[in-house]
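ARCHIVE CARD
Drawer: 12
Card no.: 0347
Subject: one protein chain, sequence and derived structure
Cross-reference: see card 0346
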Amino acid sequence: METIVIQTEDKDKADALKAVLKVLKLDIVSEKEQIKALMNAMSVAKGYKEMLNAKAGNLIAKDAEELFKEL
């Protein structure tokens, strides 16, 4: 799999390019979607590291009730 970043000068060019990519059955991911996916991945990684630290005794784990109160 290869990722290619293309920047267009205007909306007409962007729409034409999207149409071509759709005909070729290629996935289109907007920059906004890519950033959101990256932020989600970073959040999962942070949670995983916290879990490992809690298991090792380096961090006191919060219970679910405390987490829901933070939201």
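Annotation on reverse: Residues 52 and 58 are 9 Å apart (CA to CA). The two ends are 38 Å apart (CA to CA).
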